[in-house]
Specification:
It contains four helices and no strands. By secondary structure, the chain is an all-alpha fold. Helix 2 packs antiparallel against helix 3 and helix 3 runs antiparallel to helix 4. The chain has one domain.
Length: about 170
């Protein structure tokens, strides 16, 4: 049974590495496209086959704010994927309760909260422009998912912290 779970873990780690690298490449492509728009002052250029020019009807500052928020979300997704890879590395069945694991779970929960916050801002900016909803933009179900994941991971981190305390007490008693 252990060999099977190790194989599943290896496949998951590989898939998360692929997703992480893809997300980093996506962030780079988005950043280069956005910088190209700024340098050429041509905000009608598409970035990753998406036209963000309808945001200009609200104002250039709002356009830049939206672009920075979107780039921030892409970077946060990459950070989340990397944190999950770290989680796989730290996870050990023999000794599941250590401080680094509970701290990492709390960091992942905080990252999910930041994703929810930026998604709310992105959704608010999208609502300013009628009939503008890019494929990359968040919606209310994304925000709910981010908040739910943050809450679940926070609770799991608390359980691991309690396990750390119990394990420390147990080691002192023996």
């Amino acid at each position: 049974m252990e060999a099977k779970s190790e194989k599943i873990k290896s496949v998951l780690v590989f898939l998360f590495w692929v997703a992480f690298i893809s997300c980093c490449i996506g962030a780079g492509v988005f950043l280069v496209g956005y910088l190209r728009q700024i340098i050429t002052h041509n905000y009608t250029l598409k970035i990753m086959d998406q036209d963000y020019s309808p945001l200009l009807s609200v104002g250039l500052a709002t356009y830049h704010l939206f672009m920075v928020i979107t780039l921030g979300l892409i970077i946060l997704f990459a950070i989340l994927l990397f944190q999950i890879l770290q989680l796989f590395r730290l996870l050990a069945v023999e000794d599941p309760f250590h401080k680094t694991l509970s701290r990492l779970l709390l960091k992942i929960a905080q990252t999910f909260l930041w994703c929810a916050t930026l998604s709310v801002l992105e959704m608010a900016i999208c609502s300013l422009v009628p009939h503008f909803h890019p494929e990359s933009a968040s919606d209310s179900s994304d925000i709910f998912t981010f908040l739910l994941m943050a809450a679940v991971l926070y609770l799991i981190a608390q359980v691991f912290r309690k396990g750390e305390n119990l394990q420390a007490e147990n080691e002192l008693t023996v």
